[in-house]
Amino acid sequence: MSKEYNVAILGATGAVGRRMIDQLAKSTIPVKSVKLLASSRSAGTHLKFRDQDLVVKETTPDSFDGVDLVLSSAGGSVSKKFLPEAVKRGAVCVDNSAFRMDEDVPLVVPEVNPEALKNHHGIIANPNCSTIQMVMALEPVRRKFGLKQIIVSTYQAASGAGQAAIDELKKESQAYLDGKNMQEDAHILPTKGDKKHYPLAFNLLPQIDVLEDSGYSHEEWKMIHETKKIMLNDMNSKDIKVTATCVRVPVPIAHGESVYFTVEDESATAQDIMDVIADFPGDVLQDDIKNQIYPQPINAEGSRDTFVGRIRPDYENPGAFNMWVVSDNLLKGAAWNTVENAEYLVKMGLI
How far is it, in rounded angstroms, from Cα 57 to Cα 67? Predict the structure, then answer.
């Protein structure tokens, strides 16, 4: 009889946490029990796991007694406080926020670098949502043709900043349509951690996370260094050059990315690139320009897949290509990638 696992979901009532519950229910993980954890403010909330009605409990260190697996999307400070406690009690944790750049914590997209899971010391980090979909699109290219450089511009949905940001976008949109001042409803974006807030509705915000002294936003920094850590196991590697511009757009769910990349094998054609992407698990090629078929956020919402299209060469630079990548940032970018990492941990006997 296969082992069954006691699972805790930390941050269960958030936009990602609720999707983790759903993805866990649909996963191949043999679940013995599920414990839903959140802050004292959310304790008492009732949520469903399969046919069970579960009550969300306030998180304490003792919450992790007897837990084998923790799926976490509770924010950096909460994860740093509680996940080491979970590890002390024998749990393996997959986290969405706090440990991505820790040297001894694997940063894993299961289709891309599953072997990194073997190096865990109790915690596995889920990459940033925008990084996940980009490396999903580019990893089959890197394996076949090599990668020299990546230049990415993101078009990131409001949901990347949580359910409150989606709600704020809707309120601002209605205010705009009613001829009212949207600024009155702007309390979250571009980021809670900065001094000023701007409306997203009918607008674009070229800032995601805080702006650093380098001129880059922290989101841009994460995309650069996470990509290198995932693909090259070295966040500071010079073997692939990466730069990013990250923009928040008035879309509720699913990020888009314009990715310009240069391969080592200059004999590669656009059709070659399409072929390797179409064959890669988790990628869906949507590239039929004659029929105007290409990835769109509105169609990606609710899917675990990464959608890739508009693949075309840069005729001015041999070995350089453009592509357009779209994925549901709350699923493959967060909840599903977390649960999928846990599936791999179970399959590989690492829990």
Answer: 14
